[in-house]
Amino acid sequence: MAVLEVKDLMVFYENAVAINNVNLGCERGKITGVFGANSAGKSTLLSTISGIILDIKRKEQMRGGQRIVVLGSVLYEGEDITSLEASFRARRGLVLCPERRRIFPESTVMENLRIGGILATREQAKKTLEYVFTIFPALKNLRKREGGFLSGGEQQMLAIGRALMAQPKVLMLDEPLLGLSPLMEEILIEAIRTINQEIGLTVLVSEQYARPVLPLIDYGYILENGAAVLEGDSRELMDNPDVKAAYFGV
Length: 250
Ligand code: ATP
Known about the structure:
Layout: E1 2-13, E2 16-27, E3 31-35, H1 42-50, H2 52-62, E4 68-76, E5 79-80, H3 86-91, E6 94-97, H4 109-116, H5 122-135, H6 137-141, H7 152-165, E7 170-174, H8 182-199, E8 202-207, E9 219-224, E10 227-233, H9 234-239, H10 241-248
Parallel strand pairs: 3-8, 3-9, 6-7, 7-8
Antiparallel strand pairs: 1-2, 1-4, 4-5, 9-10
The chain binds adenosine-5'-triphosphate.
């Protein structure tokens, strides 16, 4: 059964449609991918699922800016959470690791991780911290380093570690490979696979470049101009001629 479902979702920024009638499901314990070019709507989709769109909408309203309209529904563990605040969704295990990491640059690695675990019990935080250092041993050596002084790959490790500290049931990763070297891409893909397999975490990952991520996912969706134009399991997508042409250059 899908732990997370998006039904007939439409998102408008003023009169421009950013998400166009998207239907999507994430199976428990599986890795689901969302792929699309720049501006395809990946971040808007994840903001809507995480509830952050409600905060953005409120801020826009307060400063008399553009109107953001969300239609359709987001279901989590069978319940309609479309109007639920982001913080409540996070408390219930729907955790977003945002695009471009958004770590706290002036806080140390350890402080960043502790902030992530602010709502966890002491026991959970201790256990998860150990696990984060097992998955990303590099972070252990860097724990006193300020976030802003880490490399892009290390920052991404920290962003994922911080998200894990929030005790997710569904971890959403918005373009985790953005701007990373092929070697670092490989390390992160392997880490995501390990986390999924070892603790059975459900993952929803968005990426612009499908090539490194397609082998990782169980099921995926291709977004174009806000619409899901294609879906299938990893093999089906990799074998699809349009996907091959767009992402594999053949
Ligand atoms: P990228 O890879 O560049 O992050 P994306 O696939 O995540 O792209 P979105 O950022 O969701 O795409 O953008 C989808 C569309 O909505 C784009 O046309 C974008 O310009 C528009 N958009 C996104 N955020 C806003 C906003 N706050 N206000 C107005 N338009 C927005």
